[in-house]
What we know:
The chain is mainly beta.
Amino acid sequence: MTGFTLYPEHLDRAAQAELADAVLRAEAAAPRYRPVTPGGKAMSVRMTSFGPLGWVTDAAGYRYEPLHPLTGQPWPPIPPVLLEIWATLADAGTPPDACLVNFYDADSRMGLHQDRDEADFSAPVLSVSLGDTALFRIGGTDRRDPTRSVRLASGDVCVLAGAARLAFHGVDRILAGSSRLLPGGGRINLTLRRARAR
Length: 198
Ligand code: SIN
Ligand code: MN
């Protein structure tokens, strides 16, 4: 699929550790929680967000909100290292205004979906992976399009731009124990997005 680019080990081990630390520290103000789909199912992934807007789901639907649903406080700022990666690989002109933080444990999965709650699909989505490797699946813009499996390891960055911006994608499985980066194991995925119109 054109527009999907993988940058293996874009972050070296020191940068991964620093980013993981920043995420875990930010959780004091914006703790991870288990979201519920509009259909009432608890997700297996836990989430929080950084930036002016955070992606949320509940009985009222999928959307972006300026406040953490449990604390009622604004989301913490997007760590500067992520803004730099975005400016280098995604879009030097417009910064992201949302960073979704997904926490996966050994049994977490994410079903095939499109990222389409943003106002402007011309901005790419940029994903940074930390910790255990994920078996990521990506297809085309039709749910029935063929898909392929891509391993996302710690430090890998990928960009969904152009035709891939609305590609169906998901996480089939986490390879538990494949990384020692995160205390207690698991995987963190950070996706930077432009939620508001530019
Ligand atoms: C997502 O689609 O929100 C996350 C993808 C990933 O965890 O790699
Ligand atoms: Mn997604």
